[in-house]
Amino acid sequence: MELYILRHGDAGERDPARWPDDSLRPLTREGRLRMERAGKAFKHLGLRFDVVLSSPYTRAFETAQAALPRATILRTESLIPEAEPERVFAELATLDADAIIAVSHEPLCGRLLQCAIAPSGVKLRFGKGALCRVDLSRPEPGAGTLRWLIPARAWDAIG
């Protein structure tokens, strides 16, 4: 199974006056444009996803919509920022798919990657809009191999 982990695009700074419920904070204009460029780069790189999973938070869902405008996007609580990586693995185990993209947040993106490739070691952190590919021999901790990680700034140069 190929697991692609995508951190949401730029949503600006937290603003409790404007967004008292931070889960409703949307992408900025630049964040949306960069994720649209990411989607074009996905096509250029030949990336295809059988399943698109997204956190239910607005900025993650908007990221999935911008990068993959024709995809059916499944929202899941297992991808909220504070979720445990094991919840994601449990959900992956229920899917019949070869390539899955999960759109989420920090700290979950880094924790999920860490859990997949080195559950007892490395600490990893994702920049906004970054994408990585992990090959999983089975959907469980330690069963993954990191194939690559692309930072968001690269989307402008690819495609």
Describe what you observe in this structure:
The chain has 159 residues and is α/β, with parallel strands linked by helices. It has one domain (2-156): Phosphoglycerate mutase-like (Rossmann fold), CATH 3.40.50.1240. Helix content is 28%, strand content 20%. The chain has helices at 29-44, 58-67, 85-93, 108-117, and strands at residues 2-7, 51-54, 73-75, 99-104, 131-136, 144-150. It has a six-stranded mixed beta sheet with strand order 3-2-4-1-5-6, with helices on both faces. Helix 1 packs across helix 2. The relative contact order is 0.23. The mean pLDDT is 94.
Spans of at least 5 consecutive residues with low confidence: none
Helix content: 25-40%
Q: How are strands sequenced across the largest beta sheet?
A: 3-2-4-1-5-6
Structural class: alpha/beta
Q: What is the second-level CATH architecture?
A: 3-Layer(aba) Sandwich
Q: How would you characterize the largest beta sheet?
A: 6 strands, mixed
Number of discrete domains: 1
For the secondary structure, the number of strands is 6
Mean pLDDT: 94
Looking at this structure, what is the CATH superfamily?
Phosphoglycerate mutase-like
What's the SSE pattern? EHEHEHEHEE
Give Rg in angstroms. 15 Å
What is the CATH first-level class name? Alpha Beta
How does the overall form come out from the CA principal axes?
globular
- Helix segment count? 4
How much of the residues is beta strand, in percent? 15-25%
CATH topology: Rossmann fold
Distance between the termini: 25 Å
